[in-house]
Amino acid sequence: MGHPYGCPTRRAGLVRHPYASHGDRRRVTVESYDVVVLGAGTGGLGAARAVAAAGRTVALVEPERPGGDCTWTGCVPSKTLLETARAARRARRAGPRGVEADVRADLPAALAHARRVREEVYEDESPEVLARQGVDLVTGRGRFTGPGQVEVGGRVLRGRRYVVATGARPRVPDVVGGVPHLTSETVWDLAEAPGHLLVLGGGPVGCELAQAFAALGVRVTLVQSGPRLLPRDEPAAGEVVAAVLRDDGVDLRLGARVVGVDPGPVLHLDDGARVAGTHLLVCTGRSPETAGLGLDAAGVAVGPDGRVLVDDRLRSRTNPHVWAVGDCASPLAYTHVADDQARAAAGGLLLSLTRRPSRAALPGRWRQDRVPWVTFTDPEVAHVGLTEAQAHARWGAQARVVTVPMSAVDRARCAGRTEGFLTLVAAPGPLGVAAAARVVGMTAVCPGAGELVAAGALAVAARTTVARLALTTAAYPTYGVALRVAAAAFVAPHGGVVARPAAP
Ligand SMILES: Cc1cc2nc3c(=O)[nH]c(=O)nc-3n(C[C@H](O)[C@H](O)[C@H](O)COP(=O)(O)OP(=O)(O)OC[C@H]3O[C@@H](n4cnc5c(N)ncnc54)[C@H](O)[C@@H]3O)c2cc1C
Ligand SMILES: NC(=O)c1ccc[n+]([C@@H]2O[C@H](COP(=O)([O-])OP(=O)(O)OC[C@H]3O[C@@H](n4cnc5c(N)ncnc54)[C@H](O)[C@@H]3O)[C@@H](O)[C@H]2O)c1
């Protein structure tokens, strides 16, 4: 990910250089820093830059080129490929508008383009840029060899504070065994278009890549063990995406457990079905990359799933000199989460380095309940806050919900994109006053939903009442009109749209 707020420049005179001393027995050179960061993905880059910008010395340890999952194997290549796929998909569907296009997709060329964009993004994260920003990049795999030291190759780094930001890796179920397969780490290097791609997993990676490959001319079968796609989102969102993928020609097998995988690849499903393809893409989740980091030696505890256990300020629960951010610690694996956490952790550890840290000056706690996320299918699925079921679990049927179908939104009609919806979820108003109910969640399924969710995220974070949201003006004709209509419908029925009690 490029630096989200531009490149901070090193402030001359404020950055102290690390000093080297000699260990007495092994005569190993020990390099001392204020802060040592492990991992130069979004989390590590954000933390290291913030520390350097504050005039502290920082070593950033990374075995690969900086950038991490987002730049090399995640957001950047996938969103670039999806943009290409979207162009092809929309051109093919323009017939009813009087535009006939003969669309021929070249998947290897589309992947080559995605790889070029990665290189462009990397220009903001290269060792030269980092050096200018005051970050010492140390190339190699870091490992704690004690509570206060990290070894990288033959080097020993000591920090007054540490940040663990080593991310996560694709999790491959045991059933796949030794059968050759692709993951989000390898799929970008395909030299030829697969004849028939079998996608295992219907989370965001599976849905995005299934749609991209299908739109670029590949036959795709997607097998999802759960009953619906995108299980973290509102069920109706998964249903829209399922309908759209089927319409794109994807053979969807929902609620299907894979009980065997043979080379070929061939998937054996629990209902007796046998699905043969030419390539297998495994998208069944990710596991934190914390084994082999020597966290035991540092007294840093991890949970049963391997995530570093941190408090709500991202500080290790068991070693107060260590912070952990991003996929290696967070229950939400998103670039914006890694970046937010990096800044919060840097704020906390910088304060702890000052002579008299004041608790009042501590940066805010990291709040999971306000984090938006977007799945970049076409249409996009965007969510923030609570789902209807989560609101029901908290307040029962006193929580209320309004859904505006996109078929009632002029912008969606103009675009011929009426398949989605916008749902707003509100907590009960004080004394049952409907207008005073506060917005606690939003899901939007429409083109550009990822832009629209910023307004929902603001409403949730600011604990906005539905009445206040209803009094805003939405520009016409935007998909955002659905948000204002939904808010108004909590107060009084609005063009056939009504509020209803939340259901489990
Ligand atoms: C296909 C795909 C698409 C995605 N799309 C999106 C999206 O659209 N939007 C979004 O918000 N999120 C998306 N994500 C998730 C996002 O990429 C991650 O949440 C984010 O990159 C995590 O950042 P991180 O810094 O925690 O970890 P990473 O970026 O994984 O960085 C960890 C770094 O640590 C290094 N490392 C590992 N071990 C060591 C060690 N021992 N010593 C030193 N360094 C080490 C690794 O080499 C790596 O560079 C996507 C993920 C995938 C797989
Ligand atoms: N647009 C985005 O922001 C974006 C895009 C891609 C990934 N990501 C991040 O990366 C993380 C990992 O994504 P993911 O989609 O790999 O994982 P995921 O855990 O979100 O989804 C994996 C899916 O695979 C299914 N599954 C698990 N085992 C299976 C099996 N044996 N057979 C069939 N299905 C099986 C699960 O039911 C689940 O729905 C996400 O949680 C998300 O945070 C974000």
UniProtKB/TrEMBL annotation:
UniProt keyword annotation of Nucleotide-binding present:
yes
Q: Where is the Pyridine nucleotide-disulphide oxidoreductase dimerisation domain?
A: 371-483
Q: Where does FAD bind?
A: K79, G142, D327
Query: GO molecular function terms here?
Result: flavin adenine dinucleotide binding; NAD(P)H dehydrogenase (quinone) activity
Note accompanying the cofactor annotation: Binds 1 FAD per subunit.
Concerning Pfam families, the annotation shows:
Pyr_redox_2, Pyr_redox_dim
Give the protein's cofactors.
FAD
Q: List the disulfide bonds.
A: C70-C75
Q: Does the keyword Nucleotide-binding apply?
A: yes
Annotated NAD(+) binding sites: G201, G202, G203, P204, V205, G206, C207, E208, G285
Keyword annotations: FAD, Flavoprotein, NAD, Nucleotide-binding
**What residues does the FAD/NAD(P)-binding domain cover?**
33-342
So which domain of life are we looking at? Bacteria
Family as reported in the entry's similarity comment: Belongs to the class-I pyridine nucleotide-disulfide oxidoreductase family.
List, alphabetically, the PANTHER family matched: MERCURIC REDUCTASE (PTHR43014)
Under what name is this protein listed? FAD-binding protein
Which organism's genome codes for this protein? Answer: Vallicoccus soli
